[in-house]
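Quick entry between incubations.
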Amino acid sequence: MPAPQVAEPVTEPATEPAADPATGRVPQGERTRAMRARLLEACVDVLVERGWAGTSTTVVSQRAGVSRGAQLHHFPSKTDLVVAAVEHLTAVRREELTSAVAALPAEARSTRAVLGLLAELFTGPVFAAALELWVAARSDAALLEVVTPFERHLGRETHRFTVELLGADEEQPGVRELVQATLDLVRGLGLAQTLGDDSARRARILDQWALTLDAALARTDTRTRTGTRTGTDGAAPARPDIHWTDSQETR
Amino acid sequence: MPAPQVAEPVTEPATEPAADPATGRVPQGERTRAMRARLLEACVDVLVERGWAGTSTTVVSQRAGVSRGAQLHHFPSKTDLVVAAVEHLTAVRREELTSAVAALPAEARSTRAVLGLLAELFTGPVFAAALELWVAARSDAALLEVVTPFERHLGRETHRFTVELLGADEEQPGVRELVQATLDLVRGLGLAQTLGDDSARRARILDQWALTLDAALARTDTRTRTGTRTGTDGAAPARPDIHWTDSQETR
DNA sequence: GAACAAACAGTCAAGACTGTCTTTTTGTGG
DNA sequence: CCACAAAAAGACAGTCTTGACTGTTTGTTC
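Done. Structure below.
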């Protein structure tokens, strides 16, 4: 029923291994690296487009423009491929996270902007791929064993980043839980996005949550610290009615 | 890789059609009804246990203790089966929701208790089945068309119930968004649950969320209503350290 | 440049899944 | 009791997926 058609034949050879200008040869290490990279990227792409059930080794090899033999040489079994894809995807997500953080200038780190950033991460294609893996791992013990540790590490990393971006003080009781709640919220928003464009509703929710979160953080803040708040916006919420529309990538 | 083994042969004939004690016959209408019910329940069960990819028509019929021919008689194609399963699952979720609401006595409707109720719904097996459908629908246009309207209706219903249980006043600006955020939060928590037992962390998050939500609802309340209680629980939150452990069904 | 190993290509067999078809059983109406 | 239709059972064909297998090309090393 998912109309298992044949993939479009190799849209992008893309990662062409750099040949030595003198000999015209491509070193083995480079060839291996390029080939594996193409396969893994293709695997993630297919995961996003066709979902877990639609991700067969055949489709991946076709998508990567790689012969089945070559694929089986680098990844002897489908398990090997998937495990490597999980690692690769984790790396991609980590990179996406850090680059997004870097792209957000220090002076623009309002709570709303940070929420928009997170929402963008959790509604993008990379999240979709991760979602497919989570759900698949739910009923596949072997996959679960691979996914879980990676997810744990990345989750903690995301948490740390969020704390830093929000300028939250985790020493304060309840702050840690609020940050976790925020991340679970955007996870839920990411899930809602899978059923259709949800950007308008999401923007309104994030607007309100930013206000609420600011109020809550300020409250737990002033309770034990000095009354001056280091963050940009204090108790009085800045920009009350601005709808900070996060850029919505079309899928 | 999900080890596509043969299902355990018919654990439960369960829904046996009531035979007429006189003739010993079972009327056609009853047979049809019972057969379809068994198939749909089995379909949901398999969805929970094996995930979308592992839900083949063969497995479902085996699980239901129904011959493949009988199955194909009632549901000519897999699409027919799945569509019916989506409707069935929606009905089950609606029933689960209403009965859960009914089971919560009016005097026990603290914010925390309501959150616990929602979390229970969104971490149970029925949510798991729905999750499988959402994710599968993401990359299956036909399925998406079926799932979306049902999901929209049930989502609104859930929203209404939540508003009622929380005693929130949606006329107040921001309240609607906070309720939506709450539902998206539990969705995210449900997602986190799929990767392993998350009940302890969830309990802490919900504790804090209840406090924050109470404060926020009260605040938006007092802002436009009578001016009593400005920042009530700012200093001393009610029930500071009670961990309201939601009953965690083992999966 | 010759020998060796890695990389790459493509075919094949076994099994699983869906959906069609034929046959048998069971209930219903006359 | 009989004729007919619905229900149930099971065999079968076609397609798809996985992984094993054989053969060819390319890089490396002595």
